[in-house]
User: What shape does this take?
Amino acid sequence: MMTTIKDMVHAPVNPFFSVAVKDGKYECGNRESYYAKKLPDETFSYDISNNKVLANTDEFGTLKTVTFYRGCYTCDDIPGVWVSKDFGQAGPFCFGMTIEGEAVSLCSGSLPCQSDLAENLFPRAVFTHPSLTATVLAYAPVSADGKTRPRALIYGLYLENTTEGDVSGTVIPPEFSPDSDYFTIPDASGKMVECETMVECGKKAKCVPFHLKKGCGQWFPMVIYAPGETDAVKVIEAAGTLHWLNETLAYFRGMLGNLTMDADPLTAAIFERAVYQGISAVGMDRDGEICGSNWGTFPATRQIWMKDMYYSCLPLSMLNPDFFRQACLWFLEYGIRPEGSKYQGGVAHSLSNSLTAVLMGVLYYEATADREFFLTHREVADAFEEILEEVLALKEGDVWLFPTVWISDALALGKYHTGSNICAWKAFDGMARFMGEVFGDQEKQKKYGMISRNIKEAIETYMVTEGRFGPQYLEGIGGLTRDTQKNYPISEYEKKYVDQALTFYPDIINGDTINLMMHDGEESDTTLIPFYGYKTYDDPVVRNYARFSSSEENPTYGTECRGIKWGHESGATFPGYTTAFSGVVDEETMNGERGFMTELKRLCDLDGSWWWWPYRCDTKTGDVVRLNCCGKCGWAAGVFASLFMTQILGVRYDAPSKTLNFKPFSPGSGFEWKHARTGSGEFDFTYQKSEGRVTASVTSRVDYEVNLVLTLVTEGLPEFTDRGINAEFEEVEFLGKRAVRVHTVLKPDQRIEIAAEER
Assistant: This one.
């Protein structure tokens, strides 16, 4: 809770996501980042959103763009896009000043400036003048419960006298009036609030005077809003900008909790930024209805890549289930491509995209056990079933696999694509439980359960092959025999539009066939196998495939970019780096010199975001770019956050059974995660490793009993630190190491800790 705006102004400088500029020289917080040497750059930005408004600021606090979403509509675009959205966009905007009659610019770099993300959330730029400090702060207001999102941005300037005497001057607000053209229609309006006096400043402009005594400060906020929507201004004025700052902070902390990793603080900060990047990529119209997403938080795009939006939202199944449910309903309306002049459409166009609403529905149920919603809206479950019946109609013969053409803009390679069929398994498996537990429909539960088992058996029978590292998955299969398994004729793709996609696959075309012994960097559903619950993280086939994907055995892997190539568009595509991250098995593969988290840190921009295509073709390691055709990558952010929570931190709550699984892995650092949101649950988690001792604890913050399954990777003999707790430990294995597992009951407000002395 901030008692004054000054508290946020003086909050500690973000040690990682910050940029200092003095005399044209740049110094950056995350010195591991390849992007630290890539400034100045007009495409760099800090981004803020409450979903109704998106704003992008530069390193000097200038609002480059402010975007207000309007709505969405179907279209007949490229393979992964069949919905677009409309929006208005304005900018740039910045404050000006006069100090003792002298004009002072805050956007030219003439003053030393330190910009960062305050509280790892809000863009802040602090300018140092001989007479005062000037801090630009921006935030998009949202109520703590997420139900109120003013369609507006709070953009303010805080001045603080640093002299021994008084300082006077004026604050010059950003200009919104299109005086130059009678017919210009502005896409944003602005109003200064909480300022008692406005005075003439020049012929037409209005300024706010200030007079600061020694050590005093003053806040000059402006509300930037969609034209004509003054109700948003009234909502902000009624409660005050400080109130909305605290509400917005509470909203994000309610979603993120407070994660600290003493030995690896940058990773904890990146996790928060990944979640923020994902949710902030999504837009809402004036009525609060979701209207699609962008690639990430910069730039705003009219096109909506359906797969990008799904992955951006994925961690919200646990962290913000209300938002996730709303996104699920959007996909229920738009997730299947309609027939058009370019593509036939239907579920066969993109199997995984077509299943998105079902996948999100079952993930939502698993996280919340919200039976009431589905019982009240039976039409939602009916629509899920209709989708599954359309999928079943694709089945060919006796094999329980389903054909498809596209993933997103990437081809679903092979006659049957592995990742797409894993999505089918998850949809049917989840619906079996869903229909049984929500509606008591045992017949449907049995039917869908049988189908999911058949799909899994087919995947394991036909889509696994021997590789250098042992049995592994294929990208897809060309046929059901060993002779046809690994290759697929190019002739299958010699049809309208589809053959264009082959330009992205020069490394896997062998004569007249496609080599399916590969991993496509823009395929993430096999990467999410442990998240979906198809298999465990330490399953040998899963391990071998992860190892293969980020090795030279994979023909699409690039040694210079240390990532997976994507044709002639980019030297690496970012979802491939999150696939590589799934290869973490110990501290060396996490944070070693060639560790997968190490590379994610190096590729992280100075605002905590990742770019879709960080390398141009044929460039050297570290020679990264920002806006390389595609923008920031919400897809990768969502996949990373989902894997990090469930596999590295090891937290997963199954709400219907009230079962909390906690298996901390985290090879780089112990951690403490307070007020961790896990669907309908909330808990505190700790995991600490010290010399010769390992401990893990869980504290309940729910008002009901929970079944706790706590697994500790240790060679030692575990014990409860609270002697009043008795339970049997069972010995298990994780990644070839001994582990112990305990099943017990966690009561409301109870803390349970186990510890082991290492042998």
